[in-house]
Sequence to fold (273 residues):
Amino acid sequence: MNLGSNEREAVENQHGQRGNPDPGETAFFGYRRVPAAQKEKLVTDHFDSIAGKYDFMNTLLSAGIHHLWKRKAVRMLGLSPGDRVIDVCAGTGDLAILACRDVGPQGKVFLYDRNRAMMEAGRPKLAKRGLLGKVVYIQGDAERIAARGNSFDAAMVGFGIRNLTHIEKGFEEMHRILKPGGKLLCLEFSTPVSPWFRKLYDFYSFRVMPFVGEILTGRRQAYTYLPESIRMFPDPPALSSLLERIGFESVQFQRLTNGIAVIHTGLKKAPGT
Fold:
């Protein structure tokens, strides 16, 4: 995925920011504790196995509501014409597509993901909308983003940050590449607020989803990992605290559909504020 001359000015490899994982370090892959060095491969294999049916299964299992969540999230980001936006852990590009509408002809959207299969699975959607020339594809590591500091007006991540080995490094990288005053958007799953709804959602997540995943994709484990990874992700107050420690200000969150999904927003502090 080569960049044109204009894109090279804003996007450059960053070396030496992250060394090899400590051999003794561990991370969670769903409920399983695995060597940190292995998690990247497990996540890559996971998405390789479901990339071809990822969009179909998302729409089926969420009854289409994920499209409403994504539209609301991008509206909350408040993009302006001419903005430069990066969609981190972008997958098949739903947020990137929505951002293209807001940044206009003068803006630019960068679709950034480490998984080639997922990026390729989303290309037909962008081609259908005439957006392939509008979006710059970059394959890379979200914990070491291939971009200069202070180079984007907005950074967004939708349903992807929880798959990183170190989520705080992903957010630190998004903070680094944002311009002062730049905006962060994180749309991620969480757990319902209402106890009765949480029980119903748990049954659906741990019983129905893996069953449907096995029938339609032959990948039961992939749809077991999904609810497990959601349960291991920080709750909204904890994630807000993490973002503030990293350096974001005006951090807010909004629960959607009784807390099944949550929109987090924040700003990179501008000098003198």
